[in-house]
Specification:
The chain is mostly helical. Helix 2 runs parallel beside helix 4. The longest helix is centred in the middle third of the chain and has 45 residues.
Length: 192
Protein backbone atom coordinates (compact mmCIF):
# COMPACT_ATOMS: atom_id res chain seq x y z
CA UNK A 1 0.00 0.00 0.00
CA UNK A 2 1.19 3.52 -0.71
CA UNK A 3 2.35 5.59 2.25
CA UNK A 4 0.02 8.28 3.58
CA UNK A 5 0.19 11.58 1.74
CA UNK A 6 2.56 14.19 3.12
CA UNK A 7 1.03 17.12 5.00
CA UNK A 8 0.23 20.18 2.92
CA UNK A 9 3.03 22.72 2.78
CA UNK A 10 2.89 25.52 5.34
CA UNK A 11 1.77 28.99 4.21
CA UNK A 12 4.30 31.38 2.75
CA UNK A 13 4.66 33.17 6.09
CA UNK A 14 6.10 29.95 7.56
CA UNK A 15 3.47 29.14 10.19
CA UNK A 16 0.11 27.45 10.32
CA UNK A 17 -2.68 28.60 12.57
CA UNK A 18 -4.53 26.14 14.80
CA UNK A 19 -7.38 25.46 12.35
CA UNK A 20 -4.93 24.78 9.51
CA UNK A 21 -3.06 22.34 11.74
CA UNK A 22 -6.31 20.57 12.65
CA UNK A 23 -7.24 20.33 8.96
CA UNK A 24 -3.77 19.02 8.05
CA UNK A 25 -3.87 16.40 10.81
CA UNK A 26 -7.47 15.43 10.08
CA UNK A 27 -6.83 14.93 6.38
CA UNK A 28 -4.07 12.43 7.20
CA UNK A 29 -6.24 10.27 9.45
CA UNK A 30 -8.03 8.23 6.79
CA UNK A 31 -4.86 7.24 4.87
CA UNK A 32 -3.25 6.26 8.18
CA UNK A 33 -6.32 4.17 9.05
CA UNK A 34 -6.23 2.42 5.68
CA UNK A 35 -2.53 1.72 6.15
CA UNK A 36 -3.16 0.20 9.60
CA UNK A 37 -6.02 -1.88 8.15
CA UNK A 38 -3.76 -3.22 5.38
CA UNK A 39 -1.03 -4.09 7.91
CA UNK A 40 -3.60 -5.91 10.02
CA UNK A 41 -4.79 -7.93 7.01
CA UNK A 42 -1.21 -8.80 6.04
CA UNK A 43 -0.33 -9.96 9.55
CA UNK A 44 -3.55 -11.96 10.02
CA UNK A 45 -2.35 -14.64 7.62
CA UNK A 46 1.09 -14.98 9.23
CA UNK A 47 1.64 -17.39 12.07
CA UNK A 48 2.30 -15.59 15.33
CA UNK A 49 1.04 -12.31 13.89
CA UNK A 50 -2.42 -12.56 15.43
CA UNK A 51 -1.73 -10.14 18.31
CA UNK A 52 -0.12 -7.56 16.03
CA UNK A 53 -2.99 -7.98 13.59
CA UNK A 54 -5.49 -7.23 16.36
CA UNK A 55 -3.47 -4.19 17.45
CA UNK A 56 -3.34 -2.83 13.89
CA UNK A 57 -7.07 -3.49 13.46
CA UNK A 58 -7.73 -1.60 16.70
CA UNK A 59 -5.51 1.24 15.48
CA UNK A 60 -7.43 1.35 12.20
CA UNK A 61 -10.76 1.51 14.04
CA UNK A 62 -9.48 4.29 16.31
CA UNK A 63 -8.12 6.26 13.34
CA UNK A 64 -11.38 5.87 11.38
CA UNK A 65 -13.25 7.08 14.49
CA UNK A 66 -10.95 10.09 14.79
CA UNK A 67 -11.42 10.79 11.08
CA UNK A 68 -15.21 10.75 11.48
CA UNK A 69 -14.94 13.04 14.51
CA UNK A 70 -12.73 15.41 12.49
CA UNK A 71 -15.26 15.43 9.64
CA UNK A 72 -18.05 16.03 12.17
CA UNK A 73 -16.12 19.00 13.58
CA UNK A 74 -15.50 20.29 10.07
CA UNK A 75 -19.11 19.77 9.12
CA UNK A 76 -20.40 21.50 12.22
CA UNK A 77 -18.13 24.55 12.06
CA UNK A 78 -17.51 24.88 8.31
CA UNK A 79 -20.17 23.11 6.26
CA UNK A 80 -23.30 23.65 8.37
CA UNK A 81 -22.93 27.45 8.63
CA UNK A 82 -22.53 27.62 4.85
CA UNK A 83 -25.53 25.33 4.39
CA UNK A 84 -27.60 27.42 6.81
CA UNK A 85 -26.68 30.64 4.97
CA UNK A 86 -27.58 29.11 1.61
CA UNK A 87 -30.88 27.69 2.89
CA UNK A 88 -31.65 31.03 4.55
CA UNK A 89 -31.13 32.89 1.27
CA UNK A 90 -33.30 30.39 -0.60
CA UNK A 91 -36.03 30.54 2.04
CA UNK A 92 -35.97 34.32 2.26
CA UNK A 93 -36.51 34.56 -1.48
CA UNK A 94 -39.33 32.01 -1.38
CA UNK A 95 -41.24 33.13 1.71
CA UNK A 96 -44.63 34.62 1.01
CA UNK A 97 -46.44 36.84 3.46
CA UNK A 98 -50.06 35.62 3.12
CA UNK A 99 -51.30 37.33 6.29
CA UNK A 100 -49.83 40.73 5.52
CA UNK A 101 -51.94 43.38 3.85
CA UNK A 102 -50.94 43.87 0.20
CA UNK A 103 -50.29 47.55 0.86
CA UNK A 104 -47.53 46.63 3.37
CA UNK A 105 -45.61 44.50 0.87
CA UNK A 106 -42.85 45.79 -1.39
CA UNK A 107 -43.27 45.82 -5.16
CA UNK A 108 -41.68 42.38 -5.47
CA UNK A 109 -44.08 40.91 -2.86
CA UNK A 110 -41.48 40.78 -0.06
CA UNK A 111 -42.26 41.80 3.52
CA UNK A 112 -39.97 44.85 3.80
CA UNK A 113 -39.90 47.46 6.52
CA UNK A 114 -40.56 50.79 4.76
CA UNK A 115 -38.28 52.68 7.18
CA UNK A 116 -35.18 50.50 6.81
CA UNK A 117 -35.79 48.78 3.48
CA UNK A 118 -34.80 45.45 5.09
CA UNK A 119 -36.94 42.39 5.60
CA UNK A 120 -39.12 42.76 8.68
CA UNK A 121 -38.03 41.07 11.89
CA UNK A 122 -41.03 38.71 11.92
CA UNK A 123 -40.10 37.39 8.48
CA UNK A 124 -36.41 37.07 9.36
CA UNK A 125 -37.26 35.10 12.51
CA UNK A 126 -39.60 32.82 10.56
CA UNK A 127 -37.03 32.29 7.82
CA UNK A 128 -34.27 31.62 10.36
CA UNK A 129 -36.44 29.07 12.18
CA UNK A 130 -37.38 27.30 8.94
CA UNK A 131 -33.75 27.33 7.78
CA UNK A 132 -32.67 25.83 11.10
CA UNK A 133 -35.25 23.05 10.74
CA UNK A 134 -34.05 22.24 7.22
CA UNK A 135 -30.39 22.30 8.29
CA UNK A 136 -31.07 20.10 11.32
CA UNK A 137 -32.92 17.66 9.06
CA UNK A 138 -29.77 17.41 6.92
CA UNK A 139 -27.73 16.65 10.06
CA UNK A 140 -30.16 14.04 11.40
CA UNK A 141 -30.42 12.34 8.00
CA UNK A 142 -26.61 12.32 7.69
CA UNK A 143 -26.08 10.85 11.15
CA UNK A 144 -28.75 8.23 10.47
CA UNK A 145 -27.06 7.21 7.21
CA UNK A 146 -23.67 6.84 8.91
CA UNK A 147 -25.07 4.80 11.80
CA UNK A 148 -27.13 2.63 9.43
CA UNK A 149 -24.08 2.02 7.21
CA UNK A 150 -21.96 1.08 10.24
CA UNK A 151 -24.62 -1.26 11.65
CA UNK A 152 -25.39 -2.82 8.26
CA UNK A 153 -21.73 -3.48 7.53
CA UNK A 154 -21.17 -4.82 11.05
CA UNK A 155 -24.11 -7.22 10.71
CA UNK A 156 -23.07 -8.25 7.20
CA UNK A 157 -19.36 -8.76 7.78
CA UNK A 158 -18.85 -8.92 11.58
CA UNK A 159 -15.74 -6.85 10.95
CA UNK A 160 -15.26 -3.73 13.04
CA UNK A 161 -12.55 -2.45 10.70
CA UNK A 162 -14.72 -2.75 7.60
CA UNK A 163 -17.65 -1.21 9.48
CA UNK A 164 -15.63 1.83 10.56
CA UNK A 165 -14.26 2.21 7.04
CA UNK A 166 -17.76 2.02 5.53
CA UNK A 167 -19.02 4.58 8.05
CA UNK A 168 -16.11 6.92 7.19
CA UNK A 169 -16.93 6.59 3.49
CA UNK A 170 -20.58 7.34 4.25
CA UNK A 171 -19.54 10.50 6.13
CA UNK A 172 -17.73 11.74 3.01
CA UNK A 173 -20.60 10.73 0.73
CA UNK A 174 -23.19 12.49 2.89
CA UNK A 175 -21.04 15.61 3.09
CA UNK A 176 -20.75 15.69 -0.70
CA UNK A 177 -24.52 15.28 -1.09
CA UNK A 178 -25.19 18.17 1.27
CA UNK A 179 -22.70 20.36 -0.58
CA UNK A 180 -24.38 19.55 -3.91
CA UNK A 181 -27.86 20.27 -2.55
CA UNK A 182 -26.88 23.75 -1.51
CA UNK A 183 -24.83 24.83 -4.52
CA UNK A 184 -25.77 28.15 -6.01
CA UNK A 185 -27.68 27.88 -9.22
CA UNK A 186 -29.07 24.45 -8.44
CA UNK A 187 -32.83 24.21 -8.81
CA UNK A 188 -34.51 22.86 -5.67
CA UNK A 189 -38.11 21.72 -5.31
CA UNK A 190 -39.34 23.12 -8.59
CA UNK A 191 -37.61 26.52 -8.39
CA UNK A 192 -37.67 28.47 -11.61
Amino acid sequence: PPPPPPPPPPPADGGMNLLERIDAAGSRLKPLALDAKDKSAALASESGGRLKSILYASEACALFTLFMLYRAYRGFFVLLPAVFRRVYVQMEGAVQAPFVDESELAEDGRDLDPETGRTRMRTRVTVAALSAVVTVSYVVAGVWKVVAKFAGTMLGTSSAGKSFEAAAEEVLSTEDQIKKMTEKGRKVNGEK
